[in-house]
Structure formats: structure tokens, C-alpha cells
Amino acid sequence: MEDIRMLTTARDNEENEFLKQLSIEAGTSVHQTSLLTIFGSMIASVIVGSARKQSEEQIKALLQEKEVLLKEIHHRLKNNLQIISSLLNLQAEYIKDNQAIQIFKDSQNRIESMALIHDKLYKSKDLSRINFADYIQDLVTNLFYSYNLNSSAITLKINVEDVFLVSDAAIPCGLIINELISNSLKHGFHQRKSGEICIDFCSLEANLFTLTISDNGVGFAKDFDFQTTESLGLRLVKGLTNQLKGNIEFSSNNGVEFKIIFSTKNL
Hints:
CATH class of the largest domain: Alpha Beta
Number of helices: 5
Number of strands: 7
Helix content: 55-70%
Strand order of the largest sheet: 2-4-5-7-6
CATH superfamily of the largest domain: Histidine kinase-like ATPase, C-terminal domain
CATH topology of the largest domain: Heat Shock Protein 90
Distance between the termini: 103 Å
Order of helices and strands: HHEHEEHEEHEE
Radius of gyration: 38 Å
CATH architecture of the largest domain: 2-Layer Sandwich
Largest sheet: 5 strands, mixed
Structural class: alpha+beta
């Protein structure tokens, strides 16, 4: 009986030792599993972080490449437009008819106004838009030079906010200014020795702008109908205003005034 008791006790001790070892092994296994999980998470984080960094570097490289390409496009467009302008200028030298010469000059000025936009975009830090106040100043200076006008005879007043326009708005808006200022310079003061041209450009609210161009020249005849005019320049102004999805108001009292309101929200 004593032997049986001893055998039972020995067996119980073995079982307890086995359970103890099993518990230790289980705990060790759980601990190792936790360590592996943490280590795996760390490796995954490193891999994800490295991939993210590589992806960001690739995106940055692609954006830089895109910027270089856009700059090159604007630069080439500007150069090509200037070549066309130079060709028109050379061709005009062989023309004797004054009306034909004027047509060439008008076309040349339109091309120069577009070339100036691309030049501004090429030099701008933001390739999607330009400082329109700066552009207007350069455009009008070029027009005065083109028509060989004395700036002291015709006073130019520019009241333009420091506004940036996207290219889709800047190009048609620049062409509108070109047409209306050219029209004033050619026809507004031929019976007067001096006069004044005013350009006002401001934002009424976010994405909504108003452009007003006026002069105190001779104006139009009383029976002049702006909507049915055959003038190419004024027809271009109407078409470009439609392109901007804007509205145009015209008056001819003590000179002329064109007021155009447009939005860049959907451009």
C-alpha cells in the first residue's frame, strides 16, 4: 500500500513538473510570438515608410519633370509666335497699301499679346497663372511702341489690382485688352492732339472679375450699333467675351467705355 502511495505521489510530481514545463514553454512561446509580431510590425513599418519615401521622391521627380516640360512648351510657343510676328513685320515692308499694312500690324499685335502671355508663364513660379497687372503694363507699353505714339500726348491710367489669372482666362482677356486699346489708339484721337485711356481691372468677389476700358476720344457715331458692327476687332471682343462666358456693356458718351464682367470658376 505504501508502494502504491509512493508511485502515485511520484506520478503526480511528474505531471506537475510536466504541466510546469508546459506552462513555461507556452509562456515562452507567447512571448516569442509577441516579439515576432512587434518585430514584424517594425519591419513592415520600415518597408512601408521606405516605399512611401520612394513614392514621394518619384512623385516629386515627376512633378519637376512636368514643370520643366511646361516651361519648355511655353518657351517654344513664345518663340514660335515671335517668329510669326517677325515674318509679318518683314512682309509688311513690301506692302504699299496703307490699309493692308494696318491689317498686318493688327495681326502682329494680336500675336505679340499671346506671346507675352507665354513669356510671363515661362518666367512665372506658378505655371498655371500669371500676374495680370504686370502683364497689362507690358502689353500696353508694347502697343504704344507699335503705334509710335507719344505717351505724353495720350495719358494712360491703369488701375489694376494685384490679380493672378489662369492662362485660360488670361489669353482671351489679354486679347480683349489688345483690341480695345488698339481701337482707341487708332481711332479715338485722330481729331485731337491729346487724350486719356483708362484701364480698370478688379475682382468683385472670388473668381468674378470686371474689366473696364474707356477713353475720352471722339467716340462712335450716334447710330453705331455695337452688336451688329462689322469691325473685326470688335467682333473679336464679343467672341472672346463669350469664350470667357462673360457679359459686355458698351456706352459712347464723351468717348467710349467697354465693361466686361466674367468668372473664372468654370474655366
